[in-house]
Structures are given as structure tokens and as C-alpha cells.
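Run: sequence + adenosine-5'-diphosphate -> complex structure.
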Amino acid sequence: MKAWAAEPPRVPFRQVAIANRGEVAVRIIQACDEMGLGTVLLHSEADIHTRAHRLAGKTICIGPAASSASYLNIEATIQGALAGGAEAIHPGFGFLSENADFAAACERARLNFIGPPAAAIRKLGDKVSAKKLAQQLGLPLVPGYEGAQQDLSLLLAKAKEIGFPVIVKAAAGGGGRGMKVIRRDDEARELIESAQREAQSAFGSPQVFLEKYLERAKHIEFQIFGDVSGKVIHLFDRECSVQRRHQKIIEEALSPSLSADVRRRMGAAACAIAEVAGYRSAGTVEFLLQDEQFYLLEVNTRLQVEHPVTELVMGVDLVKAQIKTALGEPVFAEREIWAPRGHALECRIYAEDPETGGLPSIGRLGLVRWPEGPGRRFDSGFESGDEVSEFYDSMIAKAIVWDETRPRAIAKMLTVLSQSIVFGVKTNIPLLKEILQHPDFVRGTMTTRFMDQHFSAPLRLDPLDEAELRFVKSLAQKTPRAYRSSEGGTNPGNLLHGVSPFNSHWRGV
Ligand code: ADP
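>> structure
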């Protein structure tokens, strides 16, 4: 009997609150619309001029711009959902999505939490407790130390015992933050202390743990899903080795790096840990893979940013599957055969300046055009005229493509990026294009150190030539005035300010 099978039957709901923002809020609203469910967007004061705000059935402002006062505020979120007449909450990803206290508070307020049960989040969402569970199941883990004893001298001794390089991580961490790689004995003290300080300020707990740092590893993860039958299945893998500061930038499904045998064993490990924790809904089990050996890294008890690549190769809708599961409806038929088809790639498009190594480029978006076409999907929270604010992550869209083979998917993504137009802010599109053409990426041999090894220096983009300048000016003039950047006006110099013309297919023509 699964742990959650004893829960009371779920109440059908007709109105869903969305406790998130940006593209994932749009993604959830669209799924609810298609399922005939009402939506209530719980947003901050800074997110009024956004796509999600325009698309939601109802909107309720739950607090000021700072996330701590709005998107991370459990009480305000629950009160907002109740005031909006919602009977369920979808937390999206980030913010409160992996917070077991929030899931429990929703249950107490009789709001159906669209995600795993609080108990499963507690067991798996916490990196240290997930590792303990994995250990009990005999799953492979990176050697390390995750004890409660945190004196510096003990941590130093443990680091030495593991053998450098060692990675120190915040126990309560996430999003690639609070991690430091220690390469030598003489820097260990300073790096552990600074990781503890960072852990305290970012996650409210100074607890850290240590792991052997794998130098040539790939990041491979499995999409898992537990439906009301109690069965947990996996929907195959994604590779997310292209990372900057431990954060993913390009993801793909399936991984080009797995043999059939390794894939089968990793998939079985992913399902085993989820099933024993009584998992329900969508989740991701992350691994590192080095020299054909895999090691369990962590479990993310939520929908993942990169879920669309799985949706495209598996022909599923993970958000609707989450909602159906929360409604108590079965998702997977007993004898259904799940087979991946073709190849999908996702690029995260950030408002940032590639010539400064990625400093955010915030402001009002000018003309924005995504080149629609077969096998192309754009998940975006912003439209022309919207403001990319300094308060949140600067991702403005995800470009996702599907094609029959990996080389064709790469070619499609390059075409898509070249024909995308984003004015008003600079974007990382030129960087993404360089990555997609790098021999390591093309061969599929990239490791998590790929960006450090090949793209540590800011990009150098050639200045525009005369013809290109004329083109930009003419495009800028065609842009409705309301969409021009705030200091746009009629000054042609200003019209070019912040424009990202390097992205467009006309360059080089
Ligand atoms: P977060 O929850 O912050 O995303 P993870 O533990 O999932 O942290 O790790 C994020 C990334 O950091 C991994 O994909 C990998 O690139 C790197 N990383 C983490 N642990 C190790 C390790 N032991 N060896 C090598 N790289 C690691």
C-alpha cells in the first residue's frame, strides 16, 4: 500500500490558483483553459504588465515586488487563493514549489496542492534526506559526507578523506547556488566557511555537505510521474550538461550519451526511490554520469523548467497530467507502451548581455517575434511592451524544437534563434548559437564543465556594418512607439540602445 493511498479522496476542483509568474504561469493557465478550469493568478506588484496577468481569468495581487514578500509568502499566497475562489494551487517551479510546509498549509486550508504530497516532498526534496533514502535502497551516490556534525575541523578532515577536488553544497540549497568547488587543501577552510555563510543567508540554514567533485561528468535526469494508481513510471531522460554557474542553459531529450543498459538501470533507480517515498505527480531524479557509472544527485519534487523537451519526445502534457492526478483521475493506462520519438532541444533565452559575460539587461521589451513553424514551441511570459524587471530571474522565454534526429533538431534550433527578434533588451541568443555549433556539443560529448572550458570569456560580437545599421534603424522605426525602449523617442541612437539585432537572420546576409 502506498503511503499516500490512505489520504482522503480528493475534492474535484474547478478553479486553480497559480502561485508563480512568467512563462510557467502562462503554461499552467493555458493547460487550465484547455481543461475548462478557471484560473486565479497570484502575482506581485511588479508583475502587472505581463502575459500571465493578461491571460488569467482572475488576478490577485499578493504583495510587493520582492519575492520574500509575495511569491515566497505562504500566508499571502493561501489567502489570495481562497479570496479568488480557488480550490487548488499549482506552484509551478522555483518559489514555493518544493516547500513541504507550503504543501501542508495548502492541505490544511483545503486547497488541493497540484504536486506531490507534503510527506514525499519532505523525504525527497531535502538533498540530505534523499541521499539517506538512496543509500538505504543501495542506489549509487557520489562519495561524500552529509552528517549533522558541522564543526569546521570535522568538515576539513572529511574533505581530505574524500580527496580533492571536493564540492561543498548548502543542504537546503537549490538553483545552483551555495556551491563551491575545493581543489586544494589550503583553500578548503575559506571555501567551506564562505559556503556556510552563503547557505545561511540564501537558505536560512548554515548546514552544508560534501561530495567528491566529478570533473568529467554529464548531467542526466529522468522525468518521473506517479499517478493515482500508485505506480511511478519514468518518461525517459534529459541531458542538461550545458550549464553556467551550475545552472542549465540548454537541455535535450533524450540524452545522446546513454547506452541502452545504463538508461534502463538509471530509469529503474529513479522509479525505485520515488515509489518508496510514496511519490505522486511530476518529478525529476537527477544523476551525474561519468565513465558509464551513474550517481544519484538529487530529486526535484516538482515540474522542471525543461519539461517541454520530454513532452515533445514522449507526446505527453505533464501539466495536464499533474492536474488530472490532483483531481484523482488516472493518467496512465495499464498496458500503455511509452516510446520516445525523435529529438527535442530547449534553449533558455535570457535578457542579458553576452558581451559582459551575462550581466542582466533589464528594461522594456521592444518588438518581440518568435519564428513559428512545425516542431517549434516558444514558452514565454513576456510580450512586446512588457517590462523585464530586476526583481526576478531574467529568463524571458524558452525556445523548444523537435525534429526527427539530433542533428536536425540542432539545425532547427539554430534557424529559430537566428530568426528570433528581441528588441529593447540584449539577449544570450548569440551565445546559444555559438554553443550549438561547438564540436563538443555537436558530438554530444559535453560535460558539465563545457561552459567553463569553452565559454568562460565574454563573447566578442563584431560591430554592425553600415548595411546592418540601416536595417536596425528601419526595423526600429517600424516598431510601434509604445514598444520602443523607454528612452527610445525619436533619437536613432537611442532606438538602437539595448537592441539585440545580432540575433536576426539578416546578419551576415
Ligand atoms: P541544485 O539543486 O542547486 O541545482 P545540484 O546538486 O542539482 O544543485 O547540482 C547542480 C549542478 O552542479 C550539477 O548539474 C553539476 O553540474 C554540479 N554538481 C553538483 N554536484 C557535483 C559533483 N559532486 N561533482 C561534479 N559536479 C557537481
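>> summary
The chain has a mean pLDDT of 90. The radius of gyration is 23 Å.
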